[in-house]
Design goal:
By secondary structure, this protein is mainly α. The protein has 5 helices and 4 strands, in the order αβααβααββ. The radius of gyration is 15 Å and the shape is globular.
Length: about 110
């Protein structure tokens, strides 16, 4: 409610970075117990608000097919944000995370 009240009176547009989206997702899931699909839906609705500016990759990642599904064998939302950020800048991503390694142009160190 506090955040909603703030956004209702804040000068627009309010800019939300990918890192803020990731932190908000983590808070929704781990502190408030919001299911993954619901957290994705709420964040996408927030980023779709015309008074919100989201200059990063979050909106595209949250809108992607499969974003609302969760699987231990696939990269999570934060990993997908990292991946999309690297892809946007045409950079290779190197990780130890095997689930993240399932995405395109990711090298997994063994």
């Amino acid at each position: 409610m506090v955040a909603r009240d703030f956004l209702a009176t804040a000068p627009t547009p309010v800019t939300i970075s990918d890192l803020v989206v990731a932190e908000t997702y983590f808070a929704l899931r781990h502190h408030y117990g919001v299911p993954h699909a619901e957290a994705v839906r709420v964040l996408l609705a927030l980023l779709s608000d015309p008074d919100i500016s989201a200059p990063g990759v979050s909106r595209a990642v949250l809108s992607a097919d499969g974003a609302s599904r969760v699987s231990k064998s696939m990269p999570g939302l934060v990993d997908r944000l990292i991946h999309a950020d690297y892809r946007r800048d045409d950079l290779p991503l190197i990780t130890f995370d095997r689930a993240l390694g399932r995405l395109e142009r990711v090298r997994v160190l063994e």
